[in-house]
Design a protein that fits this description.
325 residues, alpha/beta, eight-stranded mixed β-sheet, six-stranded parallel β-sheet, 9 helices, 14 strands, binds nicotinamide-adenine-dinucleotide
Length: 325
């Protein structure tokens, strides 16, 4: 079993710890907060608990580290762990700037270590289904992908809605389209905490002409977790708020009948919901990390795909800051 340590035992870290405890040897727990340390020491009595990340890294038997601390700390902690020769799973995004992520990728490659960003949605069975539909040509040419990730809360103080929420959708959009955007725009505003945008609208355009949009907000009456893919032949929606009907395929499309002398019409056919396995995405993600550590799969690709996400994020963030309020 992989001997693993985890830094960051907050709202999300507890889910990671639960999974790693079940499928790895969760040997170390680290958090800057004393009360969190006490809580987790009681929950995982066989793990060693510390407030000092370097103490965990000094364990020569420790093979891997999971980082679930606030976003601005990811780069520094991931770098320390890689320098100490540990495989790293780091919550999204692993770095806030592309040159930092590039440095982490280089470091991991030089030392043949795993650097896996926590792009949870890529392990969601519904996203895998979207990918199969896109790659299998079921939708025809994909024209547009757009996402809605809105709710009232959780209001973050350190990272804006783009960094906190948008990174999920961005990872899926890049995974589905396999292209890097040539044009990106982001507009938004910080209403509650200075410099931390609560509502962000993003637009991306790709070399093939495909376009994408993301509506990201924690100031919204709707709880929405939705990704829509518009193809020329069919359209598909992944709605993560649905318990059973996570994916819906619409046989709807524009139509160019010869009798209308070039005028576009539309057609509507069947609407159906393919069965999506109920596996926990986080369990699949943690398992994939351990497989990479064990030498299975493409560890270099996992890190480099993460770099593409950080590059797009950085370009969006630059546009957001430059945009007039
Ligand atoms: N994949 C997902 O779906 C998902 C969901 C929620 C959050 N996240 C990510 O998980 C990370 C944590 O989010 P959260 O909601 O748990 O935040 P949180 O604030 O609840 O927890 C963060 C914890 O990290 C600790 N911490 C801060 N700096 C530290 C340091 N230098 N060393 C050790 N501990 C430190 C804090 O004391 C706190 O307990 C973020 O990167 C967030 O983006 C991912």
């Amino acid at each position: 079993m992989t001997r693993l340590g985890q830094a960051g035992l907050g709202a999300w870290g507890k889910n990671l710890a639960r999974n790693f405890d079940e499928i790895a040897d969760l040997a170390w727990l680290c958090d800057a907060d004393e009360s969190r340390r006490q809580e987790f020491a009681a929950r995982y009595p066989s793990a060693r608990v510390t407030g000092d990340f370097e103490e965990l890294l000094a364990d020569p038997e420790l093979e891997a580290v999971a980082v679930a601390t606030p976003v601005p700390t990811h780069y520094e902690l991931a770098k320390l762990a890689l320098e100490a020769g540990k495989h790293v799973f780091v919550e999204k995004p692993p770095a806030m700037r592309a040159h930092e992520m590039e440095e982490l990728c280089d470091l991991a490659e030089e030392r043949d270590l795993v650097l896996m960003p926590g792009h949870l949605l890529l392990y969601h069975p519904a996203v895998n289904m979207l990918k199969r539909l896109v790659d299998g040509g079921d939708l025809g040419d994909v024209l547009c992908v757009y996402s809605n990730r809105q709710n009232l809360g959780v209001i973050r103080r350190h990272e804006n809605a783009l960094l906190s929420l948008g990174v999920h959708d961005l990872s899926v959009i890049l995974y589905l389209l396999e292209e890097e955007p040539t044009e990106v725009w982001a507009h938004g505003n910080a209403f509650l905490n200075e410099g931390v945008e609560d509502i962000v609208f993003c637009y991306l355009r790709f070399p093939s002409g495909k376009i994408a949009h993301m509506h990201l907000s924690w100031l919204d009456p709707h709880k929405m977790r939705k990704i829509t893919v518009v193809g020329r032949e069919k359209m598909v929606v992944f709605d993560d708020m649905e318990l059973e009907r996570k994916v819906t395929v619409y046989d709807k499309a524009p139509w160019h009948p010869s009798a209308t002398w070039g005028e576009w019409q539309t057609r509507s056919g069947d609407i159906f919901s393919p069965k999506v396995p109920n596996d926990e995405p986080l369990r699949l993600e943690c398992t994939h990390f351990l497989e990479l550590v064990a030498g299975e799969g493409d560890r270099r690709k996992a890190a480099r795909d993460g770099l593409l996400v950080v590059q797009a994020l950085e370009a969006l963030q630059a546009s957001l800051v430059a945009a007039p309020a």
